[in-house]
Every structure is written in C-alpha cells, then in structure tokens.
Amino acid sequence: MPFIQNNENDIKEMLEKIGVEKFEDLLDSIPEELRTGNKFNIGKALSEPEVWKHLYNTATKNKNSDDNISFLGGGIYDHYVPAAVDQIASRSEFYTAYTPYQAEVSQGTLIVMYEYQTLINRLTGMEVTNDSMYDGATAMAEAAHMARVINGKHNIVISETVNPLYIEVVKTYSHGLNIPIRIAPSKDGKTDIDAIVSLIDNETAAVIAQNPNFFGIIENMEKLSETVHEKDTLFIAAYDPISLAILKTPGEYNADIAVGEGQALGNPQSFGGPLLGLFSTKRKFIRQVPGRIVGATKDANGNTGYVMTLQTREQHIKRDRATSNICSNEGLCMTRAAIYLELVGEEGLKAVAETSTKNSHYLFDKLLSVNGIEAAFPNTPFFKEFVIKLPIEAKTIINKLENRGIFAGINLGKFRKEWAKMLLIAVTETKTKDEMDYFVSEIKKII
Known about the structure:
Aspartate Aminotransferase, domain 2, 447 residues, single chain, 17 strands, PyrdxlP-dep_Trfase_small, alpha/beta
C-alpha cells in the first residue's frame, strides 16, 4: 500500500498537470539499464529477525578507533569522551528534543543553548556565538557568505593551508551565487602572507585562514589578521577548539568571524558524523549571523527566563532576507559539547591540549629516527598533527598497517598527486607510549 493512497484518476490528473503521459517519463534522466529489471542484486525478501542478523553481521565488519590504534585526523579526532557526557546527554529531555526548530522550545533546552554560547565565547574570545551549525566546513561557507553581506564586496581569498575539504564546500556553496574563490598558495606548509596580499583587491570581502592549519602547523595569525585589516577586508579564522586552551584565541588576534569543527568537544568520531559547526563573531555583526541566538531576560514577575532572541532563518521572521537557509543547528552535538566543557573545565582542557602536543612531538621525533622518513615541513611548529614524507607511497603504508591494527593517518595523495608519499598523522591525549612505539616499529618493518 503506498503511503499516499492515490487512485488511478488521481495519478492521471497529476501526470496531466505535470505534462507527461506516464510515471516512467519522470525517470528519463536515469539510464534505462539502471531502472529496468533487477540490476542491483538485492536478493529475496527477509523476515525481521533475518534482517536484524544481516545488519548486525554487516556492522561487525566496521573497524573503529576502539578496536584499532587511530592516528586519523584532518578535522575529526580520537579525543577521549568522558562517560558522563553520554549519561547526561542521553536523558530524554535532551535526547528527544535536540533540534529545536520552533520558537516554543523548553526552558531547559534554551538554558543549554545559552550555556553553550557562553562557553564558546569564553573559549574563542569572541563576543557572539550562534547555537551551532552542521559542521566546520559549512560554518566556514556561511562565514564567507556573511562577510559579503557585511561589507558588500564579492570575492573570497582562502589560504591553501585550509582543510581542502572545507575549501571544496566553500566553492560548492558559492557556486550558485557566482562568488569568485581565490586560493592563495602556501610556502613551506604555511600561509604565504605576500600571496594573500597579492590576491586582495577592492572587491575582496574576506580572507580565510586556519590555525593550526590542515598540516597541523601553527600559523602567524596575528600578522595575518593585521595585514588583512590594513586592506579593509574582513578576517575569518578557522580553529581547533582543543588548541585554544594553549594557543591564542581568534578574539586575541582580532578575527571578525571564527569558525571551527566541534566534534572534539565530547562527540565521538562516528564514522564521520554527525558533526558540530562552531560559529562566532563580533557583536556588531550580530544581525548578520546565521542560525539562532538565545538571550536571558526577566518575566513579568522578575524571574530569569531564556528566549530565542534571534533566529534569522528563512522560514522564521526573515523570509527572503534570511541570513541562511541551511543553518539547522546540531542541537544534540551542541549539548554534548557544553557538557564536555563543563566537565573538563579550563584546566582539564589545557591538560588535553598539552598532552596531545607532547604525544605528537614524541611520535614525530621517533618517526624521524626511522631511516627513509623525513619531515615534510622541517622546522615548523605544530600542535597535534604533522606531516611526514615517506620513501614509498602513503597508501601502501596505510593499507599494510591497517592489517596490523593501526590507522596510520591520512594519505595526502588523495588531494594532490605530488603528495602521494606524504602522510598526515594526528596524535591526541588518548595515545599511550606503547601504542606510539608499536606504530614506529611496524612502519619501520614495512619501510
């Protein structure tokens, strides 16, 4: 039985209105060999117990960072998630109301959103934070669009050291708006400020840089911000939230908009999603912020209450003047991030950052002692990620180490052919000395 019970006359009337003779005419864009016959080898129908068993057996083929030693990074990291985060976030009042589309959300949800805003403001040194976005990549794309609205200029300059996946999302998001995206070449793994300056013109709305950058290298964000502002251009900074416990914040180097991926704040890797987009800005730009902002107020009796102060979504108050139409917030991931930050506190977050840094430098030094391995970007400071240059292709190392229970890192050859022998390695506070030593011994055997 179809979900919508249309009779033959209903179907005929709809097809006539659309302007086609039969339903199959609507599928013309799909090659006929893909829509006729059983080409997909789906198999026979299964009962519920059989489906459950099939799905369970399929799921057990997955390999995750609990069963393997993971050095994967590139935006999604294997940080420890305290058990209390799962326990608190799974309470029904959070878990069943994690996407508050409507204005009439509960006070409890509004309080969490308000707390989250406050925590991210303190973490980033920024003045205003919205209540999350899809992920770090779309947050960056939204920031680029917001910059254009603020200053009325059109093109965007992005440092080549920004996560290449983020750059692709910005390009895709900008395609329909015909926004020129200019990529500034890097130098020795860092942003080339001179190259940035050469690409800025009177129509440049913003410059985007990332710190630590895609290669894990710490950029000179103060100098970059100062240079960009001298050109009367907005500065958008992407950041790793864990790094802000020990590195300068976007607020300290005067970023106009700060975006980041918040997965590391109490959210599991989950095979790549759902994620958490962090989005902050200066107070003077609050009217251009996409998404939602919660404020504190007083009711008629003088009691403190929380309200949805701004929600500039197209189906709410702004309609055709909406700041965005894809700014759905990641409410449950946001809640987990707030719980995580409250649990670990300022000193705990600093300990996570410092331990990750210490571990990554230990592994880096050990790997460079292996004959044939070199630093891809020598003498550059890094946070918890680094790039090594191998004597053989990185994909070979990755495949062989996976069979030995190790996720070795990211093959940069996926992004550029000339990077085929380069491996991006991330090391968090979860890695033990024995695990890192095992990694070094196994990679040595392969080389």
